[in-house]
Amino acid sequence: MLSLAKYIDHTLLAPDATQAQIDTVISQAKQYHFASVCLNPYWVPRAHAALRESDVKVCTVIGFPLGANTTLVKVAEANHALDEGAQEIDMVMNIGELKFGHDDHVKADIQAVAAATHAKGGLLKVIIEAALLSDPQIVRACELAEQADADFVKTSTGFAKGGATVHDVVVMKQAVGTRLGVKAAGGIHTYAQAKALIEAGATRIGASAGVEILMEAENEQI
Question: Where is the active site (predicted)?
Answer without folding.
Answer: 90, 154, 183
